[in-house]
Structures are given as C-alpha cells and as structure tokens.
Amino acid sequence: MDNKGLQPDLPIVHTTDPSRRQSRARQDSSVDLWATIDRSRLEQDVHIIPIQELFNRFHTDPRTGLSASSIPDARAQYGDNKLTPPKPPSYFWLLFKQAFMGFNCILWFAGVLAFLAYKPFGEPDPSVTDLALGVVLFLVIICNSVLNAYQEIKSIKIVAAFSKLLPTLATVRRDGREQQVVTDEIVPGDIILIRMGDKLPADCRFLSCDGLKVIFLLHGLF
Prior knowledge:
Blueprint: H1 18-23, H2 51-58, H3 71-78, H4 91-99, H5 104-118, H6 128-162, E1 169-174, E2 177-182, E3 191-195, E4 205-210, E5 217-221
Antiparallel strand pairs: 1-2, 1-3, 3-5, 4-5
C-alpha cells in the first residue's frame, strides 16, 4: 500500500502547465486524496506526483537507494539535514520589549501622571504621596519586566534543549546496503528505514509500510 505523506522541505518544483499535471493519472494509488485540491496553487508536488517520477527526479531507487558517489553532490546542493537555529535574542531587547507592552504601558502613563502631580502641578505645596506613588509604579514596571523577560529566556532555553532529543543516527539504504548515517548527512532521495520505536529524522514521504498503526516497519523517502 502506498501512503502519500507530506514533505515540505524537498525542492520546490514549478510546473508551466498545471492543467496537464491535474489530468495526469495516478498509477500508484487507488484513491486520489488530492482530487478536490487545486494543485496549480501548490508550491511543491513531491507528495502528489507518481512515485516513479519521484524516484527519477532524485535519481534514487527503492531497492538500492542512492549511490555513495552522489551523496557529496547532493549535500553540496541541499546542505545539511538540520534546522537553522534562530539568532539568540538580545537580553536587553527582551527587557525593553517587556517594559513597554501590555499593562505596563498603562503603568508608565500612571507613573508619569503621579510625578506631574508632584511637580509642577502640585506646587507650591507638592504632596510626597504623589512622588511615592510614581516611584512605586516605576518599580512595579521594572520588576514585572524583569520577571517576564526571565520567563521568556527560560522558554527559549527549553525549546533549544528539545533539539538534543532528536535522533542522531538513521538507517538508510545506499548502494543496496543498509547503513547508519548521521541524520545531518541525510539528503533528498535517501531511502530511510524506520522501525518500531524509531523517530523520523526528516520530513518523509512514505513509500510502503507494514502495519502502519503499530509501526512495525516503515520505508521513507526523504
């Protein structure tokens, strides 16, 4: 049974004749899951094109996989199989952003009014209470901003730690042999073998499966 999974990280392919692609007969599935979809608007078609066309596009074979000689060229073209980490945010910018967002804007306005009520509006006999109120409001803003920025920094570090849970090795089929490679070295066209308990090392299109609900054995094409 062929399963048509999504694979958003594969190369974008633009077709000059969308109507011809829509009329192309599906040879590898008895059910067309994309019959009601306007395929001309899809940026990528690797998840709907016939499976043999997919093999030809990436010069691979389900039985032998990619050849070892083609891996360096593929890695040079597509790069490493990993997400580019976002640029670490500036702690000062986080604190500044927290100080002027949400309810803090109202507190800033109230604090400024409290200082104005002290001087010059309170002259010639300004009330110390207005001054104290303004100071307290500003202290609340600062403490609240520091706390929110600290929580956001903790969240960023937690999300970054999740990347360490990703699998570091994957089983692929190359030159007709099963071998383990570092997940960063997986390239489009690799035949990936996923067994029970394994994690998907990349965005894949399922080619064949045996007991998909139980996940006994899965073959994926990256």
